[in-house]
Every structure is written in C-alpha cells, then in structure tokens.
Specification:
Layout (H helix, E strand, L loop, with lengths): L2 E6 L3 H12 L4 E7 L3 H8 L5 E3 L2 H5 L6 E4 L6 H10 L3 E5 L6 H14 L4 E4 L6 H12 L5 E9 L9 H20 L3 E7 L15 E7 L4 E7 L7 E8 L3 E3 L7 E4 L2 E4 L5 H4 L1 H16 L8 H19 L6 E2 L11
Parallel strand pairs: 1-2, 1-4, 2-3, 4-5, 5-6, 7-10
Antiparallel strand pairs: 7-11, 8-9, 8-15, 9-10, 11-12, 13-14
The structure holds (2R,3S,4s,5R,6S)-2,3,4,5,6-pentahydroxycyclohexanone.
Length: 336
C-alpha cells in the first residue's frame, strides 16, 4: 500500500521531508500541502503535483490523505494533532509535541478517547546510528551504570525570531528526549545556568545557557545550548559509565590533510547532520502506517519532554531558583 501523505507547514523542515519521501524513501506519496502562507504551500506542492489546502483542517479531513506530517511552529501543533486523532489519522508531529505540558495532556486525552496510538513525535535522534551504538554499550551492562552525560548542542546562528525560551523548548528539547530514551528513566529536576553571553547573539537573547538535569536514579546531565557559534552545527555527547566513557564520533564526511593541518568539514544544519536519522525515522513511520501500526516516540514522550521544558523555563525565568522539580502526571496505562 502506498501511504498518501499530507504536509502541514511548508517551511524548510517540511520541504526537506517532502524531498526525502519522494527521492530517498519508499512507500509514501505526497498528495497535499497546507500552510498559512498560500504561496509557500503552492511552491512546496508543485514538484510533487500535490493539492494545496487553504487550512490545516481541510487537509486533515481530505479523504485522499491517509496520514499527516506536521512541521509548523511548536506553538500551533496541539489543535492540528488533536484534529488528526479525531479524524483517525496517523500523524508525525515535529518536536515539540506542544509548548506546554497542558496541551500535551490534552493530546494524550484525545488519543486515549480514540483508543489507538496515532501520534509519533519527531524526535529523530532516537534513529541516529551513533546514539544507538552508545545506547547498546550502556544496555549491554559490561561497563557498569551511567553516572553522568555531557552534551553540547551548538548552532551556527539563529534568526531574530528565536527567543530565549526556544533555547529550551526548540533546541534543548532534543537532549531532553534523547537522555530519557538513552537512560530509560525520567528527568526529575532541572536548573538552567546563564554563563557569560556571546556578543554574536541578538540583544534579546540569553545565549549560551547550560541546562543541568538529574534523572530518577541520580544521573547528572548537562547540556550546553550555544546557538550563535558562527562556524558549525555541532552536536556532542559523552556518556560516562562506571568503567568507560562513550562519545559520539565527530560528524565528519571527509578529512583534508595539507600544510594547514588535518581537518574535516563541519555540518551546518540539523537537516544535514541528522539526514540519515530523519530518513530512518520517516521510513519506519511510513512502513508502520501501511501496517496500521504505531511506531516511534509517543504522546507520553512528547508530554514528558515538555514537562521538563516547563521546569527549565521556570528556572530560566528566575535565576535565583534552586533546582526546579519536574511535575509529571502518573503515566497512563495506555502508554505503558
Ligand atoms: C531546530 O528546530 C532543530 O530541531 C535543531 O535540531 C536545533 O539544533 C535548533 O536549535 C532548532 O531551532
């Protein structure tokens, strides 16, 4: 079965997904696009001969759309995700699932009413080969327990519309989810520190920040979020076990050795750095939808990550606050 896919949100990320589904993956066909910017929707739809819908509602309820990808801004995800659930359609929603835990809870409630897991959250790092190898070393158990994880999440630049809150709910949310998945436990306490600011930021922005988190069993995680680095999109992670330290490799494509030294080209965006992970994530989703099955991270994962975001934002807004406790509801049996 070919899965007929509709895209809501025709920005850079959405367009990259359309291209991968058409050029690199199998089993999916782009049939519809919607965006509040009509011209952007027309341009994105044209190469695929897809229809353009004026509203997301119209796209979701189009009987010729089997499944939906949402790649709009986090703030507007919740109503569209709930409409997909009510229409009985599988939806892959880019992170964050929603920008408040309350909205994520409303999504979980709608999904439980529908009685079927339909929502996958676009946490693509779960599909990255190196993170999976790191998890395999931890799970094999030969080097003891996890004690610490050091993360660096660096972007070359961000647009003026990027806010300090987004450092948490748009950027650090990747490490928040990846750490929950890697360690297999919830994050329970968080604090955000503000080191000296870079002169390369827009004046309204706090940058860099360091997010410090503790898990249920006491693993300490730190995450440097530094989004005006100028020179690269650079993701680093080191997992410290009792008798080993496991680091993600550098994401080089080629090495050049000459009179200037030995060096490799750096990625410049997440689309480039996580290309293979995105492909795997979307291929698995298309295959699962064709089998009428859920795959990937759930609404619970979206809710848990956003609950950590809420606590981190509270810490960011009140520098004098000590560690902020993460408030999580009891996990519904539906997501066990
Ligand atoms: C963006 O939305 C992403 O998902 C990237 O992975 C992250 O590095 C960037 O900061 C976000 O704005």
């Amino acid at each position: 079965m070919t899965v007929r896919i509709g895209l809501i949100g025709a920005g850079g990320m959405g367009r990259a997904h359309l291209a991968r589904i058409t050029n690199e993956l199998s089993g999916g066909e782009i049939v519809a696009v919607a965006d509040i910017n009509h011209d952007a929707a027309v341009q994105a739809a044209a190469p695929y001969g897809a229809r353009v819908h004026d509203t997301s509602d119209e796209l979701i309820n189009d009987p010729r759309v089997d499944a939906v990808i949402i790649a709009t801004f986090g703030k507007v995800h919740a109503p569209d995700v709930i409409r997909c659930i009510e229409a009985g359609k599988y939806v892959l929603c880019e992170k964050p699932l929603a920008t408040t835990a309350e909205d994520c809870a409303a999504i979980m409630a709608a999904e439980q009413r529908a009685g079927k897991k339909l929502v996958t959250v676009g946490f693509m790092r779960r599909f990255d080969a190196a993170y999976n190898e790191m998890k395999a070393v931890l799970d094999a158990g030969g080097n003891g327990q996890a004690l610490l994880v050091h993360n660096r999440h660096r972007n070359p630049t961000v647009p003026e519309s990027y806010t300090s809150r987004m450092a948490i709910d748009d950027t650090a949310i990747h490490e928040i989810d990846t750490m929950r998945w890697l360690l297999g436990e919830e994050i329970v306490r968080v604090r955000v520190e503000r080191p000296k600011s870079t002169t390369h930021r827009f004046p309204h922005l706090i940058d860099p920040v360091v997010v410090v988190m503790y898990t249920e069993s006491g693993v300490r995680i730190d995450d440097e979020v530094n989004v005006n680095l100028q020179w690269a999109y650079s993701i680093e992670c080191e997992l410290v076990l009792e008798t080993a330290a496991v680091r993600l490799g550098d994401q080089e494509k080629i090495h050049v050795r000459d009179e200037h030294g030995d060096r490799n080209a750096m990625c410049q965006s997440h689309i480039d750095r996580f290309q293979a992970a995105f492909n795997r994530e979307f291929q698995e989703w298309i295959n699962a939808v064709a089998r009428d099955e859920h795959t990937g991270s759930t609404s619970w994962d979206g809710y848990a990550a956003t609950s950590v975001v809420d606590a981190a934002v509270a810490s960011l807004e009140d520098e004098s606050a000590p560690m902020v406790e993460v408030r999580l509801m009891e996990k519904p049996a539906f997501y066990a």
